[in-house]
Amino acid sequence: KAGVTQTPRYLIKTRGQQVTLSCSPISGHRSVSWYQQTPGQGLQFLFEYFSETQRNKGNFPGRFSGRQFSNSRSEMNVSTLELGDSALYLCASSSLRADTGELFFGEGSRLTVL
Amino acid sequence: GENVEQHPSTLSVQEGDSAVIKCTYSDSASNYFPWYKQELGKGPQLIIDIRSNVGEKKDQRIAVTLNKTAKHFSLHITETQPEDSAVYFCAAGQAGTALIFGKGTTLSVSS
Hints:
The structure holds two protein chains of two kinds.
Chain A: E1 5-7, E2 10-13, E3 19-24, E4 31-38, E5 42-50, E6 53-57, E7 64-68, E8 74-78, E9 87-94, E10 104-105, E11 109-113
Parallel strand pairs in A: 2-11
Antiparallel strand pairs in A: 1-3, 3-8, 4-5, 4-9, 5-6, 7-8, 9-10, 9-11
Chain B: E1 4-7, E2 10-14, E3 19-25, E4 32-38, E5 45-51, E6 56-59, E7 62-67, E8 72-77, E9 86-92, E10 100-101, E11 105-110
Parallel strand pairs in B: 2-11
Antiparallel strand pairs in B: 1-3, 3-8, 4-5, 4-9, 6-7, 7-8, 9-10, 9-11
């Protein structure tokens, strides 16, 4: 069974640009969550999607957005990039609601903002 | 909302020693407490979890304890091995809300 796939794995952007990250969950999983990982802050929750609906949202500015497609694949977008957005963005899928079942993480997309 | 504090941020032990990582949570309604291990260059992976109706759970060298009254839970690793070296995250959650993670503990096991 294929794991969670995130693309791209690495990317470099400049301030003010926008970026779109993609996540393909494990087949059959309907819940996708996104987390931002930085050295000082650990794993910070961005949002969770379940069956194309955003169920939960973390405390991030509106520049961070996401969506989920009918095949459960998800994308997140960050507009007007800032230096502080440099981080590893992790996607996780679950067969149940993300809060009560095991999360299966991808290897992440490492974003560097210059 | 939920807030999870994790200590220590770094932990160094000798091979064969035990390691203990502690977490506290703020929301008394939380009822699910997983622990994740993240190796270098990989995403976090679930190693053990516990639900609020259980006080302790063991899986070989790993155990987790939960004290709902004090709102804290701990990860215990016995007979540590070099391959246990990684970043460990605790988390807390409940139905209808997001899983909130602690800031992580970097465990180094030296041989």
